[in-house]
Amino acid sequence: MTSSSHAKFDPSRAREYTEQARIGLAGYDACHELSACILSAALAGARERRILVVGAGGTAGEITATARLEPNWTFVAVDPSEPMLALAQAAVEEAGIGERVTFVRDAVSALPAEPAFDAALMIGVLHHIPGDADKARLLEDIAGRLLPGGSLVLAGNYRAYDSEPLLQAAWANRWRLHGASEGEVEAKLARIKAGAVPPASEEAVADLLAASGFTAPERFFSSLFWGAWHTRRAT
């Protein structure tokens, strides 16, 4: 993340993240579990793998699910937000896998610029990066740290929110189902739309990946504005 994007995740927002993320994304846990399953299937054939987790702060659901499935894999979890990273560290310790996860409070660009990872996971990050140039730069930073042919599982919102009024109305109903008042619903949608810039379409996601050194993505999960894809660093 850039400094402007990660600054949104201050201590107060970090505290509410765990609950609100599961309301905002119908299928939150399923997406994280499927991401682990996809990555395990894509990297089958070797017991030990080293995984980069980008924007790891929060529930650490992608780490804990993957670690359960692959007990010999290790993780480097990168996030510039200290409050969000603290949440992830607590979740990892609670899961009993702390010795397998190295936490780095910084950007991906701060890591050594060498292909040191078998795969990467980036869930719920790209739509918080403000522009296409910065999005591409982050993806390039990831590609440069993957081994040739290494996998990337990418997940996040895509499509402009106001371009899909039916999906936006259904999204608002998610909060109503969980007890939010009309004022709270309006405030949540306004904050999301003010603070995130998703890629314009699934084709835009594919274009960003191609320009950053990745192969054509394969989508394996979808929920309203959210999508999840598997791709590889081009060899």
If you had to describe this structure to a student in words, what would you say it looks like?
This protein is an alpha/beta fold and 235 residues long. The chain has one domain (3-158, 198-230): Vaccinia Virus protein VP39 (Rossmann fold, 3-Layer(aba) Sandwich). It has helices at 3-6, 11-24, 28-42, 61-69, 82-94, 132-143, 165-177, 182-195, 202-211, and strands spanning 50-54, 74-78, 101-104, 117-123, 146-157, 218-223, 226-232. A seven-stranded mixed β-sheet has the order 3-2-1-4-5-7-6, covered by helices on one side. Strand 2 (74-78), helix 5 and strand 3 (101-104) form a beta-alpha-beta unit. Helix 3 packs across helix 4 and helix 7 (165-177) packs across helix 8. The longest helix has 15 residues, at 28-42. The two termini are 26 Å apart.
Spatial strand sequence of the major β-sheet: 3-2-1-4-5-7-6
**Main sheet makeup:** 7 strands, mixed
Q: How does the overall form come out from the CA principal axes?
A: globular
What's the CATH class, please?
Answer: Alpha Beta
Instruction: State the share of residues found in helices, binned by percent.
Output: 40-55%
Classify the fold: give the CATH topology: Rossmann fold
Can you count the beta strands? Answer: 7
SSE order, one letter for each helix or strand: HHHEHEHEEHEHHHEE
Structural class, from secondary structure content?
alpha/beta
Distance between the termini: 26 Å
Low-confidence stretches: none
Strand content: 15-25%
Spell out the CATH superfamily.
Vaccinia Virus protein VP39
Mean pLDDT: 92
CATH architecture: 3-Layer(aba) Sandwich
Count up the helices.
9
What Rg, in angstroms, do the CA atoms define?
Answer: 17 Å
- The number of distinct structural domains comes to 1
